[in-house]
Amino acid sequence: MKRLENHITIITGAGRGIGETTALKFASEGATVVVVDLNEADINHVVESIQKLEGKAIGILCNVTDREQVNNLIEKTVATYGRIDSVINNAGITADSTLVKMEEQQFDSVIDVNLKGVFNVGQRTAQVMKEQKSGVILNASSVVGLYGNFGQTNYAATKWGVIGMTKSWAKELGKHHVRVNCVAPGFIMTPMTEKMPDKVLDMMSGKSPLGRLGTPEDIANAYAFLASSEASFITGTVLSVDGGVVT
Ligand code: NAP
């Protein structure tokens, strides 16, 4: 039997990058994946890739900042599968600028997706999981949430905030048998980091004792472990998957 057989998971921002790889990983472990993204073509591509590998997936368009769309996502999932075993709050954006130059819109947009979006999806999912008395909520933090980063006031605030929400939810939901954890990736090669200058990426890989950037598979493996019963006594934690980055 596969590790995530009969497991229903929702993955936000699953149209590309870490979310896409995590969707493929969960499907390969036997899970049925609800692929969530803003972009329909990306969703269809991921759902088709999973189905080609004989995995199970459906796609649902949803902007995590829109509470009505989030409500629809959760209701459709429960109507289709009857329950939600895990959710991965992976959708996230950057809008970098130094503190003195950052526009209000840059600050607000990142807070809206990375913090409010996690709250929106986490809250609706928790309502379902509390009723069913089981479930796992996994949130995407970042090494930047732990150590800060030049030019990422907005992003660092959200990723630190995600840790606070994770620990609070773990305390509230533990008695309902719902586990809540977050993963703090280091610098991972995805479309998000492709925008960064080579100089910065070289510096980041130099900060890891392992001397490399991470891969989306490194993060997908951590999510799959935390969602599985192998992690049944782990809640309220931040799992750093960053190659031992030293600031
Ligand atoms: P990515 O390649 O930019 O992918 C992010 C995905 O999220 C995209 O498919 C994007 O859709 C989707 N998305 C953005 N806003 C959304 C919204 N409002 N509602 C629904 N979906 C939305 O990012 P990534 O590098 O894979 O990162 C995934 C997560 O890991 C993020 O939370 C990120 O902060 C975190 N993380 C990444 C790294 C890294 O080095 N890559 C490090 C630490 C943490 P569109 O394509 O349609 O815009």
Automatic annotation (TrEMBL):
Pathway assigned to this chain's UniProt record: Lipid metabolism; fatty acid biosynthesis
UniProt EC number: 1.1.1.100
Stored InterPro entries: 3oxo_ACP_reduc (IPR011284), NAD(P)-bd_dom_sf (IPR036291), Sc_DH/Rdtase_CS (IPR020904), SDR (IPR050259), SDR_fam (IPR002347)
Positions that bind NADP(+): G13, A14, G15, R16, N63, V64, N90, Y155, A156, A157, T158, K159, I188
Matching CDD domains: BKR_SDR_c (cd05333)
Pfam families assigned: adh_short_C2
Active site per database record: Y155
Any one Gene Ontology BP term: fatty acid biosynthetic process
Recorded catalytic activity of this chain's protein: a (3R)-hydroxyacyl-[ACP] + NADP(+) = a 3-oxoacyl-[ACP] + NADPH + H(+)
GO molecular function: 3-oxoacyl-[acyl-carrier-protein] reductase (NADPH) activity; NAD binding
Keywords assigned: Fatty acid biosynthesis, Fatty acid metabolism, Lipid biosynthesis, Lipid metabolism, NADP, Oxidoreductase
Tree of life domain: Bacteria
Biological role: Catalyzes the NADPH-dependent reduction of beta-ketoacyl-ACP substrates to beta-hydroxyacyl-ACP products, the first reductive step in the elongation cycle of fatty acid biosynthesis.
Subunit and partners: Homotetramer.
Family: Belongs to the short-chain dehydrogenases/reductases (SDR) family.
Protein name (record): 3-oxoacyl-[acyl-carrier-protein] reductase
Organism in which the protein naturally occurs: Salisediminibacterium beveridgei
